[in-house]
Amino acid sequence: MVTKTSQRFHLRLILLVLTILSKSQTINLVGGFSIREATLDDLHLAFRQNQLTSRKLVEFYIREINRLNPILNAIIEVNPDALYLADKADKERKANFPGSLSKLHGIPILVKDLIGTKDKLNTTAGSFALLGSVVPRDAGVVSKLRNAGAIILGKASMTEWASLRSLNIPLGWSARGGQGKNPYLLSATPCGSSSGSAISVAANLVSVSLGTETDGSLLCPASYNSVVGIKPTVGLTSRAGVIPFSPRQDTIGPIGRTVSDAVSVLDAIVGLDYNDQATTRASKYIPPGGYKQFLKVDGLKGKRLGIVRDPFFTSGTGSLQSQAFENHFQTLREKGEILIDNLEIANIYEILNITASGEATAILAEFKLYLNQYLKKLVVSPVRSLADVIAFNQRYPDLELTEEYGQEVFLAAQATNGIGDMEKAAILNLERLSREGFEKLVTEKNLDALVSPGPDVSPVLAIGGFPGINVPAGYDDDGVPFGINFGGLKGSEPKLIEVAYSFEQATKVRKQPPTLQP
């Protein structure tokens, strides 16, 4: 028998469920279109079908940032002009404005807090020492993004000063941004230093972002946050207007949830920039028609892929990960890949030791030299040299947690005096290690790419200015992601994209963070 009391109870229950569903729909759906996990192609289709506008897209991301950023600390600042820029993009699209069909037109993008923007956003490397500084112009890659119609949504958090303040700073931590959290397991490392760029994309706080890498700073967070990260050949993307660490190794690259999305951003940011001479040399690598043409489902067929077991598959790889990679190797074979196993990179242990290789010696001197040049060119800045930054941290130890984390790397860099005999010898040794190691292996074995787990190969790619692509490869027993990396010689992005895209389409490993659903 159904009583009036039970009817009222059931009615209240139904209303409660509808309220919950309504809130969920508000968060997940806009005009019947699901933004979460949507690709750039999905977003543009929704634009064309009038299911979505750039304003609604930006509003969605701002709501998600308000909901999740207090937990994840992935974003330092949101652009106060983001909604204005979204409205501008909507008007341009409605008027069929030239360029409004660009893959990035009307799409919000986050850039790492190293990348200069001439707007209301700060560029601080996560440090209070640079808060309030004013850059002379947009960074080269930001200018290209704006030309493509992208909306700069804000600045992504990062490991402060890309870990070059102190080796004691936890990956993903900065004084301004706090501790970035891995959205798959909050207690796990998000890696760094492009931590916020990867966290934001993984957690659907934005569709795509820009990170930077000197050695592992993009590939590592991409691996740990189950996103695609492309580390381009050094000079393929401009470093002008980006806080420098080592122009010999620094590179700017995209992060997305799919290879296709990352490649769309790559197409937008590569190319000549007269403010960065390295782009003149590297422009020869850019294929006519860009990189989108290499998104081929059968891109693995006939490719020669090398596997170096020692040390990449013999240390730090759990049994679940090992089995996942063996399964992936079988998939590669089935897709027509030619795997050459058990290869060796000459002097690999010296390469992986940044002290023995000379990498640390070179970068310390380069960092001081080029940071001082960058700081002197700022329109407004509280600091004008590395010495000023060190003094700032000593003056405000509580603000920067200097007493807890220190600044011993800063002090070591400050003690250098330009590129002297010791630094020149270190750079020559790095060139020799690359030439006799990775370059020789790839050339002699006629490899299209080297495959390795996660970011462990980063130093090999870093010291030679070589490109790499991380693709999601699985999750460990705790649910923490790990990626697979495809690396190649300078200018080999077309082959790497073919391999990475084909692998992604054959495996489709990525899943969104389970604990963050509304």
Automatic annotation (TrEMBL):
PANTHER family: AMIDASE (PTHR42678), OS04G0183300 PROTEIN (PTHR42678:SF34). Pfam families: Amidase. It comes from Ziziphus jujuba. The keyword Glycoprotein does not apply. Keywords: Signal. This is Probable amidase At4g34880. Residues 57-453 form the Amidase domain. SUPFAM superfamilies: Amidase signature (AS) enzymes. InterPro entries: Amidase_dom, AS_sf. Residues 1-26 form the signal peptide. The keyword Signal applies. It comes from the Eukaryota. The lineage of its organism: Eukaryota, Viridiplantae, Streptophyta, Embryophyta, Tracheophyta.
